[in-house]
Amino acid sequence: MAPLPAEIPRIVAELGRRFPGVRAWWGRSTGEWWAMTRDHSGRDRLVEADSPAELSRRLDAILTVPRFARAHQFGAPSRPAPRAPEPARPSAATASPTHGRHELPRRGLLRGRRRPLARGNANHA
Predict the structure, then answer these.
(1) How far does Cα 24 stand from its chain's mean position?
(2) Crossing angle of helices 7-18/52-63, nearest 10°?
(3) In this predicted model, what pLDDT tens digit does every residue of 18-31 receive, in sequence order?
(4) 24 three-state secondary structure
């Protein structure tokens, strides 16, 4: 149901008092209540509702910072990062016979098979 024209400024002002920084309006073309706000992570949000009460509920849901986000936002201590495991040291039994030297692959094993050049031009016979 559309609000009376005289009620619209009062409702918009009430929403503005309840939600500072939120821009609210009645969409004459859409017949819906609208608001532009930012959520707790700083993203712009366009909110739409059938009534001012529903718009208020939706803004409450968007602007209420979740409990876990509040703890993180205000620098509450979090769990320490797990320590990386230390690298395994080779034992005498698993040490390579080259004693730390790297064996290079034999020449030609990493190359692909060479294909003969195509002789499409008769001038290069």
Answers:
(1) 27
(2) 20
(3) 999 999 999 999 99
(4) strand
- Is the pLDDT reported for residue 8 higher than 90? yes
Neighbour tally for 36: CB within 10 Å? 13
Q: Which tokens belong to 106?
A: 């034999």
DSSP state for residue 56 in the 8-state scheme: H
User: The tokens of 68 are what?
Assistant: 């876990």
**Strand ranges (E), 5-119:** 23-27, 32-38, 44-49
Please say whether the beta carbons of 39 and 63 come within 8 A.
yes
Residues 6+ apart with CB under 8 A from 55: 15, 24, 33, 34, 35, 47, 48, 49
Per-residue pLDDT reduced to its tens digit, 59-118 = 999 988 766 655 555 555 555 556 767 777 766 555 555 555 666 555 655 555 566 666
* Cα 14 to Cα 59: distance, rounded to the nearest angstrom: 13
Sign of the dihedral through C-alpha 14, 19, 22, 27: negative
Phi and psi angles of residue 68, each rounded to the nearest 5 degrees, phi first: -65, -35
Q: Kindly state the tokens that stand for 50.
A: 């059938």
